[in-house]
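Input.
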Amino acid sequence: KTLFNKWDFLLDTNKIGQPKLVEGKAILEGLEIAANRPFSVVPFFDPGPWGGQWMKEVCNLDESVPNYAWCFNCVPEENSLLLKFGDDVIEIPSIDLVFRHPRELLGDPVHGRFGDEFPIRFDYLDTMEGGHLSLQVHPLTEYIHEKFGLHYTQDESYYMMDVGDDAIVYLGLRERVNPEEMLADLEESQAGGKPFEAEKHVQTWPIKKHDHVLIPAGTIHCSGRNSMVLEISATPYIFTFKLWDWGRLGMDGKPRPI
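Output.
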């Protein structure tokens, strides 16, 4: 943020053996153009322990990858922005555009509330022929501010692009849940005891294609298997609290942190 106006050159080394050098002022001109016209970031696809097969086919992805769990698409902290100079394409973090032109990009009301952060994100979650997402919860605004110094949290929603016949969403606690008993069950499962009985504590809802599920912060939730989810949410970037991951291992063969 502090060095933009001191750039003489930018060196793009994203592709091994193909470094590209461009004048700093040319990059800044490119960012100004992007801030005043429609643009798209570079989608980022990644496998995961619960990932599915829908995106692999529909998005024409590498068939040798076992699955694709996520697609980040317009998450400036995660996605790249491409700027073309003649026949050369320069790849930079798309967050640079937010840092450089937050007011032009977001508008005065949004900039006044969120500063130079892009406060909404779009990503895809593919569990078609895969597994449940981690059972999780996002902290309330007061908690995330007190503990982590952030001034907004992750309210989110699921829009169901496609689903299987058995698709469900875990959403909200059941009536008359005993919090102490639930925490004890979570701790026992985390310590290697009996698996956590999610349905004992958390409600499940059958879903169909084109359903839209609202998930306020503080609501325990996850998408079940056989769903293709467009997730639209606020973007505090981190601080998703995973409560239970169905006893599975990560892609590295190690237990996933809870």
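The mean pLDDT is 93.
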